[in-house]
Amino acid sequence: MIPSLTVEDRLRRAFVPTRHGVVGLTDQLLAACAGADLAFERVGDRCVCRWTFGDDAQEVAVPIPPAAFRTVLARIAALCNERDPNSVTPYRGEGLLPVPGDPAALLRVSFVNTQEKQQLELKGVVRAAVEAVEEKPLVEPPHAEVLAPEPGG
Amino acid sequence: MWLLHGTTLARAESIVQHGPDVGFVEPGGTGVAENFSFTSEGTPSDLGDSVTYARGKAASFPGERGPAAVAVDVPDDVVRMAAVEHLSLFGGLIEYDETAEVGELVALCSGVVQFDPGPPLDQLLAMWGALAKEIRGVP
User: Fold this and answer.
1) How far apart are CA A4 and CA B34, in angstroms?
2) Which of A23-37, A126-140, B23-37 shows the lowest mean pLDDT across its residues?
3) Residue B86 sits in which domain range?
């Protein structure tokens, strides 16, 4: 985690080509964005990243195609469930994930991955030790609501 | 290669009979599926397994007779086409060798074989009736 990076620098690091497949791409995204408050969302046939700088809302297009973004969101759901089984559904949820390369740091994630909406929010970082002392749940329970469709139904 | 798709029993019966439908809209939904995903039997999936998907789907749609998995034996060359097609959708963010073993390509896709609209899906649908397939119960 490098807090001094600009958002543009983080995005460049997040979307460097990888030879490690979906897992590698997802790890890159989480590691590059740790420490920043960023939101990614599919808008039509592209994906954008949003954040605030001062009082200004910022938005840039990011070079991940929507179909690829859905796969990354699926990986994030799986990571949440690896950390705390059944804590999220494949369609939505939120929790804390270890920052790749810095396992003592936890990144707060929130995602939606449905046919209608695909979104990922990454917020700040807490230290795992602090979280344990405060006895907060490491992964929060999923929302109780009707699930949205799985691709291919 | 045997592929698994976790779903509900009602949908599994329809899929076995008619093949994957990427235009499927779930009850109460508005968006279409856009693609159709399987896990590769015997290969760990980094995106979650078919049993988990089936259970979640059955919980969401209790009127669809519980969880089930569609198992279908798809030729390796079609799986390869699907994996390469899916990796190509990453717009260069994932580097891969099209000549690699099919298992390596599927691993790059996290153990998931996704059919997006295009030649691999067309080929799968064209041969669907002749493929060995079954519906498996999910506890």
Assistant:
1) 39
2) A126-140
3) 2-137
Q: From the CA of A2, how many Å to the nearest CA of chain B?
A: 22
The total of structural domains in chain B comes to 1
**What are the structural domains, with CATH classification, of chain A?**
7-133 (3.30.450.90)
User: What is the residue whose two structure tokens read 């840039």?
Assistant: A60
pLDDT band of A89, cuts 50, 70, 90: confident
Cα angle A98-B59-A117, degrees, rounded to a multiple of 5: 60
Question: 3-class DSSP state for residue A92?
Answer: strand
Return the pLDDT at A131: 53
Q: Do B37 and A81 touch (CB under 8 A)?
A: no
A19 chain-B contacts, CB cut-off 8 A: 94-96
Q: Do B30 and A115 touch (CB under 8 A)?
A: yes
At B87-107, the pLDDT tens digits run 999 999 999 999 999 999 999
